[in-house]
Structure formats: C-alpha cells, structure tokens
Design a protein that fits this description.
The mean pLDDT is about 90. The N and C termini lie far apart (about 65 Å). A hairpin with a 4-residue loop joins strand 9 and strand 10. The chain is an alpha/beta fold and about 350 residues long. Helix 5 runs parallel beside helix 9. It has 2 domains: about 200 residues, 3-Layer(aba) Sandwich (Rossmann fold), CATH 3.40.50; about 130 residues, Rossmann fold, CATH 3.40.50. Helices cover about 30% and strands about 25% of the residues. The longest helix has 23 residues. The strands form 4 sheets. A 7-stranded parallel sheet has the order 7-11-6-1-4-5-12, with helices on both faces. Strands 14-13-15-16-17 form a 5-stranded parallel sheet. The chain has a 3-stranded antiparallel sheet with strand order 8-9-10.
Length: about 350
C-alpha cells in the first residue's frame, strides 16, 4: 500500500540545493494531513554525510543512494536510482524541484513507473476526492496547482488512479522549516543495480561558467519595476534604491517582453517565485500572474499612480504617486538614515 511523502533532495557538487530544503518543509505540511512520514531521497557519490541535514530540516527518514555512477547528474543513472527507490518503498507522493535537473528527471521517472506528473507547480494541498459519493470516506488526494495557457489561468490537477502522485515545484514557492539540530531520524542506504544502458552518456569534461548576475530568489530585498517605469532607463533609479537597501532589482513580465531587462529578473507565474523580506513594487499594476510570484513576501511596498491598482490589495504599505519622484527621494532618505547610524557608531 502506498504511503509517505517523498522528496528528491537535489545536490550539486555535494551541496544541498535550497529547493530541496523548501520541499521538505512543504512535505511536512502534506504528510501531517495524511498522518504519514516525510522521506528525503538523496543521490550522489560520497553524499551520505549530508543526510543529517535533511533530518534537521524536517525529514523523518533519508534514503541515500551513494554510488560512483551518481557523482555527476546524468539522466539515465539518476532515473534508475529513483525508479529503484520507488519500487522498493511505494510512496504515496513524490515531489521534485522544478529546476533544470528536476524538469529532466521527473518525466523520465514518471514514464518508467507509469504514473502521472504535474509540472511546474506553484501550490500543493491535500483534499478529499471530489467525485467520492461519501465525502467522509473519500480518499485523500494531492491537489497540484500550476499556471496554464501562458499563465492566464491556474489549473488544479489530481492523479486519482496511479501512484506515486508526482509533481515538480518551482523553487522559492514553498517555505522551508527552521533548522533543528536536535531532530532525530532514520538513514537508510539503498543499493542500485545499474544496467549497461544507464551508461550510454559519458561526461568528458565539466566547464563551470562564472555566475554573472545574482539569483533574485535568494535576495532579501527586491526593488521591482513594471510598465509604469516608462522604459529601460527607469531601472536606473530602481538600481540606486536597491543598492542602498542591499538588494537586487527585478521585474514584471511586461518589462521583459518589452526587452527592457533580462528574463532571469522576471517575477511571476511565467518567471520566478520570490519570498524576500522586502518587496518594492514600482509601477506594477498587480496582475494576478505577477502576484502569484511575490505575494508571499514578508513586507510589500507598492508605488503606483493609480490608487485602484490591484497591487495595493496585497501591499503592506501603499504609496500613490509618481515613482520617478518618490523612489529617488526614498533613496536619499535611506542614505541619510544609514549615514547618521554610521556617525553614531563612530
């Protein structure tokens, strides 16, 4: 009988990816509704020493597949390892990060074990089967929500007949639990019998490109611009503000589509999901597609000429006015406050 919520905990060069920790946190919430356990699945070579980290962030058990074939990510050996784990434990739910690795791995695994996969989810929940005759006896299903039709609507998908129920989830969407070094859990190693067809691809050389821009999903402060900034030059004043706040600039889809800023700075359903301590929305109307990517920010400041803009509905602080006047004044005010604090320290 299928049971427990499994999470693929992605690692690169032996470092656990943040999305894996986020998904363990979400799996804890889902498992509580099912009265089941959270199982982290960790693949790699010489990776067993990272298992305790998964337990500290909420996993009840860690399944480790440690093999030389898994030293670097390759589709076939990783798919073989996950397939072996699924056949051994028969999980109820299996979730992955919607990263370059997760988006490659999850479809291969779903095809091998003949189950469904909902990709690029922004929300997960446990609810009774809506078609059950008696709701009190209905089986509990994973409701997987994702943007559809270019982000113009949200679709909720269920997998009633096959197990595990599988989904990839966007990084930055879910909330990680606080680290608890006192937590105890079980660590179990699984041996995988790799086959010749798992070695069809050989890695000859790995070239690592230096990161040219910051990842906005990691930023504590984001100053974001929308169509209201007027053009690419509008990001100049936003950069000044972000700099004094120790943050990064980001954007709505409109600016990316207009070619004003790079795609990797886009926030929203078709961009990235962010959860900074402070999110400043400048000249952003607040379409539902954008709100889905930033509404979980800890504190939201909105600056817009239109006092009926939807962004004000989610903002903690709303400022009605011209951002080209307000933002520079705000930047200067922050500089003065920081300067006065430095003087007091001296």
């Amino acid at each position: 009988m299928s049971k427990d919520v499994f999470v693929f905990v992605e690692q690169r060069d032996g470092a656990i990816a943040k999305v894996g920790i986020e998904l363990i946190g979400e799996a804890t919430r889902l498992a509580a509704k099912l009265n089941e356990k959270v199982v982290a699945v960790l693949l790699g070579s010489g990776i067993k020493n990272k298992a305790n980290m998964c337990i500290e962030y909420g996993a009840d058990k860690v399944v480790v597949v440690d093999a030389p074939e898994l030293a670097e990510y390759l589709t076939d050996p990783y798919a073989r390892a996950i397939e072996t784990v699924i056949k051994k434990y028969d999980p109820e739910i299996f979730i992955y990060g919607a990263t370059s690795i997760g988006r490659d791995l999850a479809p291969r695994v779903s095809a091998r074990i003949h189950t469904g996969l909902t990709a690029d989810c922004t929300g997960l929940d446990i609810q009774p089967d809506p078609k059950a005759e008696d709701p009190s006896k209905a089986q509990l299903l994973l409701y997987m929500t994702r943007p559809a039709f270019g982000g113009n609507l949200m679709a909720t998908i269920i997998c009633r007949d096959y197990r595990p129920q599988m989904a990839t989830v966007r990084p930055g969407v879910m909330q990680a639990l606080d680290k608890d070094t006192s937590r105890k859990g079980e660590i179990e190693e699984v041996k995988v019998e790799f086959k010749p067809e798992d070695s069809r691809v050989k890695i000859r050389q790995i070239l690592k490109e230096e990161k040219k821009s910051a990842d906005i999903t990691e930023a504590k402060v984001l100053v974001s611009g929308g169509r209201g900034i007027g053009g690419p030059q509008g990001f100049g004043i936003l950069k000044d503000c972000a700099k004094v706040l120790g943050g990064e600039i980001s954007s709505s889809r409109a600016c990316v589509d207009a070619g004003w800023i790079e795609k990797d700075r886009q926030v929203g359903q078709t961009g990235k999901t962010v959860r900074p301590d402070l999110y400043m929305a400048c000249g952003i109307s607040g379409a539902i597609q954008h709100l889905a990517g930033m509404e979980q920010s800890n504190y939201i400041v909105a600056i817009n000429k239109n006092d009926t803009a939807p962004i004000f509905d989610v903002a903690d602080l709303g400022i009605v006015g011209d951002l080209k006047v307000i933002v520079p004044k705000l930047t200067e005010a922050i500089k003065k406050v920081k300067a006065s604090k430095e003087v007091k320290k001296d």
